[in-house]
Sequence to fold (206 residues):
Amino acid sequence: MTMRSIYLAAAVLAATLLASCGEKKVNLLESDSMDRWKVVVNEDSLGRTAFTIEEGILKISGMPFGYIRSAQSFSDYTLSLEWRWTGEKGVDGGIFNFLQGEDKVWPLGVQFQMTPEDMGVLMGGIPLEGVEGPFYKKPRLVESSPERPVGEWNEVKFSCKGGQLEAWLNGVLVNKAVCEAKEGYIGFQSEGGPMEIRNLYVTSAK
Fold:
């Protein structure tokens, strides 16, 4: 058997195992339509300028402040994406998991902080095991953050299963926590500066 045949067989086996486990992989940016999303900002008339999707890339302007969340709620899922800063410097921002409750600025969820100084910190109003509240903030596990320079794409992966959350940045486990929430929406912040998101996939139970 040639190496090409071996690789092909492995790919088929992986796809078969994924299907047999009853999992579904969804591309949340497969269309430039905003049908999969809800925009929540502090100035409704400007909401359409804060978030746009163009050719499979979610563009976040940074103004006005607010967030975009998935229209669908997920449980026991894996979230993978790429992001980059598109301005002159790294800016404030965040990725939300387990968003729930009222749509308002700011929402209830577990935020993966994206400011250069706090990159990888987990924070929010949902209780995290072993962390004091009522505003829960868990430092990252590594001393220095592995994010890439402004303008370069970064790879992020979250495993959110059974209330356990693990966050990986460019292949490095930067944080993990056990939280009370086990289901919720996925979201991204607009908080002062531009960034882009692409290759946004959620793998979850059907």
User: Anything to note?
Assistant: The CA atoms of residues 28 and 121 lie 24 Å apart. The helical segments are 3-20, 47-50. DSSP finds two helices and 16 strands in the chain.
